[in-house]
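---------- Forwarded message ----------

FYI, see the Glutamine amidotransferase record below. Original note from H. follows.
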Amino acid sequence: MCRWMAYSGDPALAEALLFRPAHSLINQSLHARLGVETTNGDGFGIGWFGDRQVPGVYKSVLPAWNDPNLREISREIRTRLLFAHVRASTGAAVQRSNCHPFRHGRWLWMHNGAIADYPRLKRDVMLAVDPSLYPEIEGTTDSEALFYLALTFGLTEDPPGAVARAIGLVEDLGRRHGVPDPLQMTVATSEGESIWVFRYSSQGRTRSLFCSTDIVQLRRLYPGLDVLQRLGTDARFVVSEPIHHLEGAWTEVPESSYAIVRPGTHETHPLVPVRTPQETTA
């Protein structure tokens, strides 16, 4: 499995978001505490929104803790919305095209989890992807396949509905192929304004996911903590596991739910898989 982090708020240096927290994502790439694997060294990636219409992406197959270029560029990137992901492969090759986040137009996507027994389901999953989108798939991961399923089902217009339909398709294929509990996922996706995050597994035992709480409230609780003074009041983080261990700083995203993260706020809703006529006849 993997670890990931998303940030939304006032423009901040990527270095401060990635390296400075006590249990930063770079620290988690070596010493994850809540993940299945403690080490996530099968590549990494960051995606950020700046002045261009299309987000920037930097990926490498090196471990995040051992890429000097990441430290260099993170000192130069100031962004209001950052995605970062450290990878522990569930079987797909360690190559740049398999590193997250994935990009389509203005949209970024990253995932922690797996489609169980993916080689058995892969052909049917790929056949469900819109033919106009299929040529854009660069890698071999189930994570990228989920992204293009969601795009096929309308991610750019209705992210929650599209992800619910993608889940429904994978679970339908699992039933047909005799794969119990076929899906495990925490996902983040964004077009540069809002972040949608999803927590779901067919087994009902999904990997951990947390949203940060209100910065103003945390400043009252911890008036002497410098890092909270440097963050703007609109700052929000979504993380696989907390990057600071401060009581009251994190709210767990509930099982089978999604959250919409916008500057200074987030709201949570139930996530229910949707089976469509296309899925039942594919």
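H. also flagged this: The domain at 3-281 is CATH 3.60.20.10 (Glutamine Phosphoribosylpyrophosphate, subunit 1, domain 1).
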